[in-house]
Amino acid sequence: MVAALFLPILMVITGFLVPNGFAPLDTLSYERVHSAISGSNIVKLVLFGVIALPFFHWAHRFKFTLVDIGLRKISPLLGVLCYGGAISATVVTAIILWQI
Amino acid sequence: MSYIRKVPNTWWLQRKPYFLFIVRELTSVAVAGYCGFLLYLMYALSKGPDEYSAAIGLITSPASYTLHMIGLLLVLYHTITWFNVTPKVLVFHLGEEKVPAVIIAGAHYAGWLATSALVAWLLLGTGTSV
Question: ipTM > 0.90?
């Protein structure tokens, strides 16, 4: 749900609006982005949700897609890799946002 | 002894709905890839102005443009197919009447539009410092 709601507009902004000059050049400048994030725990919490939760969205679907197309025998290993990857990404996201 | 029917690993190539299902599941790779990119931007941001400038500079490259284009198509496919099935997942009743599917799906599309507008306003609004 987080991925469905937030990612399309973010991709439009980082992929098209800013690089093509439809938005001000300093929109994603260091000063602006850093000052928006560093002082605000609320902004960090929102970013944490938007960045970390979709990794679980991926983990579940990707694992079962691989199982469905023939890797059923290594299903437990895929589970460890996919869900473990999502958990690792979540921890890394928290640490990085904490340091901004 | 139970009998388990052998299903060939190419089952999803045999019918269009099966294929579209696998495509939909694989849109999650674009989701994870883009979040990985956002995470990389945050990492660069935590390292300092030079690292961040180098990282954000990537979005002007042709590779970024291509990846964003493919990723956006996949993510839009995921969002649209998800909102279109929400009436099957959420069944509400008003008295005896079922709330029409178009209202349930429409509410999700409206929420999507509102979320997108809010994000665009927060990120792009000139003079706003979030």
Answer: yes
